[in-house]
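ugh ok so i messed up the first submission bc i forgot one of the chains. this is the corrected input, ALL of the components this time, i swear. 818 residues overall. if the numbers dont match what u have on ur side tell me asap before i send this to the collaborators (the ones from the other lab, u know who)
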Amino acid sequence: MAEKYDPVAVETKWQKRWDETQLHNVDIDGADAPFYNLMMYPYPSAEGLHVGNVYAFTGADIHGRFKQLQGHTVFEPIGFDAFGIHSENFALELGVHPMELIPSNIKNFTRQLKRMGFMYDWARVVDVTQPEYYKWTQWIFLQLYKGGMAERRQAPVNWCPSCKTVLANEQVIDGRCERCSTEVTQRFLDQWFFKITNYAQRLLDNLEWIDWSESTKRLQRNWIGRSEGADIDFEIIGHPDKKLRVFTTRPDTLFGATFMVLAPEHPYLQQITTDPQRAAVDDYVKNALAMDVVERRKAGEEREKSGVDTGAKAINPVTDEEISIWVADYVLMEYGWGAIMGVPAHDERDFDFATQYNLPIRIVVIPADQYEGFDPSAELDAAFTEHTEDEVLVNSGKFDGVLAAKAIKEITDWLAEGGRGTHAVNYRIHDWCISRQRYWGPPIPAIHCEKDGIVPVPEEDLPVTLPFVENFKPDESGVGPLARSAEFLNVECPTCGGPAKRETDVSDTFLDSAWYFMRYPSTDRHDVPFEAGRTKKWLPVDMYIGGEEHAVLHLMYSRFITMALHDLGHLPFEEPYHKFRKHGLIIREGAKMSKSRGNVVIPDEFVERYGADAFRTYLMFLGPYEEGGDFREQGIAGISRFFDRVWDAVVGGELGDGPPETDELNQKLHATIKKVSEDVAGLQYNTAIAAMMEYLNAARGGGRSARRSEIEPLVAMIAPFAPHLAEELWERLGYKESIFAGASWPAYDEQLALADQVDIAVQVNGRLRATIRAQRGASEAQVKQAALGEEAVQRHMDGMEVVKTIFVPDRLINLVVK
RNA sequence: GCGAAAGUGGCGGAAUCGGUAGACGCGCCAGCCUUAGGAGCUGGUGGCCAUUUGGCCGUGGGGGUUCGAGUCCCCCCUUUCGCACCA
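and heres the new structure output, hopefully the right one now
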């Protein structure tokens, strides 16, 4: 009896062999056809490798192995994103110190990753919690600080009461903490910011040319949120020293601005409020600020607008009318200037507000076809917000009759002449708040000296080592746990030598991951973060595959850090990834996987039963890789059977010699190589697998034994998916070297990939009536003659005449009859 | 509310420069093999009708363009994702 395929035995053997020969350790300096294949490194949780990780990594690994088989030297590194709130919260939950917990998690992850058969270069692992790594994270902070791109300032920030730290805007989802879903509140604290807003336009512009998944680019565009419009200054009666500046995308509606609204946090509010209104305003502001962010944000749909008249008046700069200034929480301090001009006729929110408080509403834009005979005192029952090419201005002085689209520029230009306004662009994106009042991160390398103020830690003093702090639990104070270590806290000022205190905030874990891919090629270099020659050779990353959930987090931050380092002269490129592809999400039996549902796929269980090769391949077979798939346990048997048959084709009996037995099979072989080559290159793994199955079915049709020439290319084609099985079969085919050592990917002949006999559909009046077999390239006349000879065709054109013939070569002929 | 993507057999999914819908796999059915089999092999498998040749219907719903529409256009429904008082 033939030897049976034992996946676990085969995989154990080859994993050991790969380890011993260090097959995938790359000669970083000597590689001649470098290909940097990157995947998003994992956060090493205590639960172990999640099936989502395996899905992501498998798709990326297949791409790497495919490139390797095509002759590239593929560098595929892995690391661990082990700093951060997530790790720390888990350590708190278990009551274990992260300095103990994390190394054991990493050990477990390493075991699992090796068991999956990924082609990692295990000699170049990055662990961001190691001082030799975060030394350089701190170095990057210092470079940005020196370059004026990092600053400490007081600002309203998102505070998570459960994590007891501030969060970046990107980490607040629907007003809740991204990590723990607790409602976020607002605090005013001194925080470190990176000025990503300085790069907003470039981050947006480069999206035009970088090769990324379209959907990911769209998310970034939305997040950057560019709007064009104007800044307009309004004079305040009785305050000649002040002007109220607003941003608007609709300067064309300026003549309709009948009031102004300030955000409750607006700096002028206290000074301009009149005495009779002061109590009411104070009261309102107090209430608004006490409200948590979630409640305030819900307002749009559910809550009625609210506000209070400040008693102060402004002058509409074009109508010279006095208009009242209100305070209302529907105006947000963090966008624009924290103040708006109220144009109730042409903005829904302003309309609601004006209706509620009986403020005047003036129509200034109407559809062009209503211009003749327009009644200037007409009333609206809803804001008119259309803004196409067809609207014209009314009630707008010398701009009456001007197209609204043109008036935007004309009115702004006119304002600019008088120094009352300018063209302006606003972005939704905010500066990146990187301070965290937590323990488990790289200390921000700054020192506070009473005399010298903020002093950066000198580069030669790096790293600022994270001390062991027994009680690392965060508290309400807004001061990080590092302040509890007197030894850490108290330091000499590097400038004056006097007593000073260290910064006790640590940096956001997204700073660790914003540059980790630059470190991989240089992990053995302790004098530089990334060595210039290697960086030039390997970077930017050739292919990056990862989850889209990081579109506005990691992916935005790493683009920013790369640009900043480029501008500071440390990098020769400004975009980190040549190509980025998002992968889809995997669900189970139509439902999202989650611990609470108890339906999480545990990779270990499947690997033990079916082997890593079958598990990998099955995950890829579920659906298009970039769209995700639905994991159904039963289905994996189909892959196991396929591998059994591949195994049997090689091991089951004598392999015949000579070329493929028939021309037809040879054609199928070439067509399959072509399809699989193209599909794998385009990450269309599901259809590539289907094509290989189809080919094997053909090669073994009728129970025949396949010849070597028929099966050897298939072994190479399954190699990216099932590397262990392919290695084993490759060896049994007589090769001494690993299949991944050379360029083993099969070539195909375009001509041979085309069948010389084709099936042509024969339609009568567009309905399929017969199928005929013909020589490839057969002429219309030939096909028509054959078609007319078909009995089924004749039946359907009985007594009628062909009035028209549509012929698609090698595919179809349609006879239109009457 | 705004923006985007997607709705195809019992199931996961193929096929979109408009050209034979349902590749491949799961499941199911029949047969073979077997002491036995949640094993393996062979064949079948969108629905309805027909003894066979075959016919009709069919890609969320409705209209349209076309010799021909899953694919293009218009309207509607549903789902998923992103953003959400962003001025």
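quick check: The domain at 757-817 of chain A is CATH 3.10.20.590 (Ubiquitin-like (UB roll)). that seems consistent at least. The two ends of chain A are 65 Å apart (CA to CA).
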